[in-house]
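Exam revision sheet. Question 4 asks you to relate a sequence to its structure. Input first:
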Amino acid sequence: MTAAKKAQSTSYKLEAAARRSKRAAMHRALEREVQPTEGKIRVTLSGAPISRDMQESLFSHSAINIPEFGLARKKLNQ
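Answer key, structure tokens:
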């Protein structure tokens, strides 16, 4: 790589990094958005299950429904 191309590449990388940092600084977290801390997502679990209505409102119809787990859950509740 020639010196001119290295200089172009370096300036491009610096400009791209500056642009990324500006965009990150403008980002506003949503009200209930989970933000990573030190590269890890920390969530406090209440231990309470989500009701079917709440599950449908959160995950829509795209939630994965595995019949074997549904049958096992029904057997446990009996």
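Marking note for examiners. The longest strand covers residues 36-37.
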